[in-house]
Amino acid sequence: MTSSADDIIAEIARTLGPTLNSPVTITADTNIVRDLGLDSLAVMNFVMELEDKFDISIPLDKIAEVETVGDLARTIQELRGA
C-alpha cells in the first residue's frame, strides 16, 4: 500500500479522476473545493472512497481542516501511522 505523500497524492488524483468534469492537474497545492469545484456531497463521497482505499476512517473534524490535496495526503499519512 502507498505511504509516501507523493504516492498518496497520486492515489487521490486517480480516485478524483472520474469525479471531475474536466481534466485538472492535481498537485499538493490543489484546493479541493475551489480548484476542483466539488460540492460538499461530492467531497464526502470522495472521502468515503479514500477511506476504503486506505483502510482508515477520517473524522469529520479532520475533514473540516483539509483544504488542499496536500492537507488530505498528510491527514491520511497521520491516520495510517506513517
What does this structure look like?
The chain is mainly α and 82 residues long. It has one domain: ACP-like (Non-ribosomal Peptide Synthetase Peptidyl Carrier Protein, Chain A, Orthogonal Bundle), CATH 1.10.1200.10. It is 55% helix and 0% strand. The mean pLDDT is 88.
Key structural traits:
single chain; 82 residues; mainly alpha; Non-ribosomal Peptide Synthetase Peptidyl Carrier Protein, Chain A; 4 helices; 0% strand
> What CATH architecture do you see?
Orthogonal Bundle
Stated plainly, the CATH topology is called Non-ribosomal Peptide Synthetase Peptidyl Carrier Protein, Chain A
CATH class category: Mainly Alpha
SS class: mainly alpha
CATH superfamily: ACP-like
The share of residues in helices is 40-55%
User: How many discrete domains?
Assistant: 1
Mean pLDDT across all residues, rounded?
88
